[in-house]
Each structure stands twice: as structure tokens, then as C-alpha cells.
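Reopening this one. Same input as before:
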Amino acid sequence: MSDDGDSDGEPERRWHPHIPGERLLRLPQVLETIGLGKTLLYELMKTGEFPQPRKVRHLSLWPESEIQQWVRTVAEPKKVG
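Same output, byte for byte:
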């Protein structure tokens, strides 16, 4: 069994031990959440338009709250004038 999910196909939940309810997302979960491809995601990270991941050994992890905030910011209508 891999550590990417459990036997019923659902992704394994990873919780930040110091922030109640904070979930850490791996790359496939981030891509699914934002609906973009990996290449564009890396371009957005390079230009500072997308949150940088936290490195834990060889893993890249993003706090779910930062991803949700980014989605809300992108989804907000642009104010003209």
C-alpha cells in the first residue's frame, strides 16, 4: 500500500500537528484543488504568484489554508477603475 491514499481510493489525510485542523497537501492534491497543470503551477511559484511548499525531507507540502486563500484571491472579481 502506498502512502498516497488508503484502500478505498481516498487520499490520506495529513494534519499539521501544531495547528488544529490544518491539513498539509501533497502536489497531486494541490493540482486537483486548483485545477491547473504542474508546469503552470511551477511558473506561478517561480514568479511568487503561488505559495511555496514546505519541505519535509523529500516531500513538498502546502498548508491547505494557503491554497484555499489563493483560490479565493484568484476567484475574486477584479475591480475596474
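So the earlier flakiness isn't reproducible anymore. For the record, Residues 64-75 form the longest helix (12 residues).
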